[in-house]
Structures are given as C-alpha cells and as structure tokens.
Write a structure and sequence with these properties.
The chain has 9 helices and 2 strands. By secondary structure, the protein is mainly α. A hairpin with a 2-residue loop joins strand 1 and strand 2.
Length: 263
C-alpha cells in the first residue's frame, strides 16, 4: 500500500514538473513570437566549442566558465578562512578583536557587493597594485566571508556548554578544543547553510564582469553585443550557472552524508 502511494506521489510530482516546464517554455516562445524574435540556436554550439581537424577547441563560453570556476574556488577557500578568523575574533576575549570583527561584518553586510567591487577596483587596487582578477577574488571573499562567519558562529554556539567543559576537564587548550571537538561537531550543522552561501557566491561572481573580468557573464555579454543572439546566449549562460550550482549542491549533500548525525 505504501509503495503504491509512493509511486502515485512520484508520478503526480513528475506530471506537475512536466506541466510547469511546458508552461515556462510556452511563455518564452510566446513572448519571443510577440516580439518578432527569430531563434538561431544552430549558431550557439560554436561559442561553446568546436572541433578543428579532430582537435577540441573551447569556445569563449567555455573559456569564461573556466575563469568563473577559478574565481569561485579561490574565493570559496578565502571566504572560509576569513569567516573562520572573524568568528574566532568575535568569540575571543579580546575587546579590540571583537570590535574589529564587528566593524568588518557591519561594513560588508550593509553595503552592496557591486559598490564594494567598484571601491576595491578604483580605490584600493591602484594602491595595492592588484589586477582585475585579484580584485574580483578579494571582493567576493570579503563579501561572502562576512556571511560565512555568521553561519559558523551560529554552528559553534549551538554546541552544548558541556562539550567545552569536557574539553577543559581533559586539559585541552582552546585551540585544541576548537580543532578536535567543537569544529568537527559544528561542521555538519553549518554545512547546509554554507552550501547555500557557496551557491550564492557562484551567482554573485557574475558581478565581476563589471570590472572587465572575462568570466562567463562577460563572455556572454560580448557575444550578445557581436551577434545579437540575446535569448539564445543568455539561456545557455543561465543553464551553465544552473549546472554549476546543482553540481556544488550534490557534492555538498554527498559530503554531508559522510558525517555522523549529531543530536
């Protein structure tokens, strides 16, 4: 009985999903028809890749994808490091450390990312002699690190006080307590919201195109300006971003299942 109910629910969900997808496709096609837009999908593949004499040659969209992935991966690592350092300062006994962390958090969270990118690129980059890519990575890392620190703080503070008392009774230092007891337990709890933040980072990376970093979005804008394949190119770019975020979510879900459950 339960199996049949489950299969019925699955079939129902698939039907709803199919109808929703069909409706969205119909709306797009109908809107394009009202605008008098002519589709040219056959021209899109060459902007992804081509084969010349049996040799695979990546197109501009794939080259932009590589830049986006590189920026995202480096920014993820730096954001995690910045977030961890910030939360440790906030939870430390240092008055100056807590206030520095607080100033950083409030400054980053209460200003738009685009403004931060422009400030770093036009004001700080010439002083620090940073290139466009380095500036983009720094801006994304600082922005996402602020949100990651709050996620980490919530995870650490969710660990019961008894765990700290057990650490101190065993003679562990604060650093050893964090590394061996507190952070391993907090990691499983903070992994889902950190995954959401990482997905947000992938999407926010599109803003680095405003300072002429040739990521996926910038390559898409260039192709659209040259070919006027507006809908085709942006749909492909959106699909690539969707594939990236879904892949990241799947990896995070697999990693989450490897951790033991915590009550």
């Amino acid at each position: 009985m339960r199996s049949s109910a489950l299969s019925f629910a699955t079939i129902r969900d698939l039907i709803c999903f199919g109808l929703t997808g069909f409706g969205l496709v119909w709306l797009v096609l109908r809107g394009a028809e009202q605008m008098g837009y002519n589709w040219h999908w056959r021209q899109v593949p060459r902007y992804l890749f081509i084969f010349s004499e049996g040799v695979f040659i990546p197109g501009p969209l794939l080259k932009g994808l590589v830049v986006t992935v590189e920026i995202t991966l480096v920014s993820l690592v730096l954001a995690a490091a910045i977030g961890l350092a910030t939360v440790l300062l906030r939870l430390s006994g240092s008055f100056i450390g807590r206030w520095l962390a607080r100033i950083y958090l409030e400054s980053i969270r209460n200003t738009p990312l685009l403004v931060q990118i422009f400030f770093l690129y036009f004001v700080m980059a010439p002083v620090l002699d940073l290139g466009r890519t380095a500036t983009a990575i720094l801006a994304l890392s600082l922005f996402e690190g602020a949100y990651a620190s709050e996620i980490m703080r919530a995870g650490i503070q969710s660990i019961g006080r008894g765990q700290w008392e057990a650490c101190y009774s065993l003679g562990l230092s604060q650093f050893q307590s964090y590394r061996r007891v507190i952070l391993p337990q907090a990691l499983r709890r903070i992994l889902p919201p950190l995954t959401s933040q990482a997905v947000s980072l992938i999407k926010d990376s599109a803003l680095v195109s405003t300072i002429a970093v040739y990521d996926l979005t910038m390559e898409g804008r260039t192709i659209v300006a040259d070919t006027f394949l507006t809908f085709e190119i942006w749909f492909v770019v959106a699909a690539i971003y969707l594939a990236l975020t879904l892949t990241l979510s799947a990896l995070a879900n697999g990693l989450e299942r490897r951790f033991p459950r915590i009550a």
